[in-house]
Amino acid sequence: MTARLNPYLNFRDGARGAMEFYHSVFGGTLDLSTYGESGVFNEPAEADKIMHGQLTGENGVVLMCADVPNHMEFTAPSNISLSGDDEALLRGWWDKLSDGATIGEPLTQAPWGDTFGMLTDKFGVPWMVNIAGTPGGQA
Questions:
Q1: Considering the chain, what percentage of its residues have pLDDT values greater than 90?
Q2: Which domains are seen in the chain, by residue range?
Q3: Are the C-beta atoms of 115 and 108 separated by less than 8 Å?
């Protein structure tokens, strides 16, 4: 049996653009379904909003999303953390996510020995990246 924990991002109107951007960052397969296609809401102004999106990226990355309809309360996304020891992969993701982002903490060596950075991407989603340091603290 398998279980996964997948971030599910809420947007007011920007899910399509955000997921297309994340697809360019993480690769893989992107599936988007609109409210209009589903017939769930009969609000013509919201027919093109994303009811459910799923990016099944390379290297095990899975992101899901939706545009929250105007009549429902919207809560901005929380931090998403990317971590591991594949420095080239994680730096590549950092570099791509940095396009148009606000950098909270540059990707640099942290006091705990790892390389760490924080940014908020151009869609308002906060990301943390942690690249595991060399065991024993030796470079």
A1: 78
A2: 8-67 (3.10.180.10), 80-137 (3.10.180.10)
A3: yes
Contact 123, 14 (CB under 8 A): yes
Sheet holding 80-84, edge to edge: 80-84, 126-131, 115-120, 102-109
pLDDT in tens, 64-74: 999 999 999 99
Q: How confident is the model at residue 139 (pLDDT cuts 50, 70, 90)?
A: very low
Going by pLDDT thresholds of 50, 70 and 90, the confidence category of residue 134 is: low
C-alpha gyration radius of the chain: 17
Burial class (CB in 10 A: 0-12, 13-18, 19+), 4: exposed
Q: How many residues does the chain have?
A: 139
Res 83: pLDDT: 95
Largest CA distance in the chain: 60
pTM, 2 dp = 0.88
Question: What is the DSSP annotation of 52-103?
Answer: EEEEE-GGG-EEEEEEPPTTS-------EEEEES-HHHHHHHHHHHTTTPEE
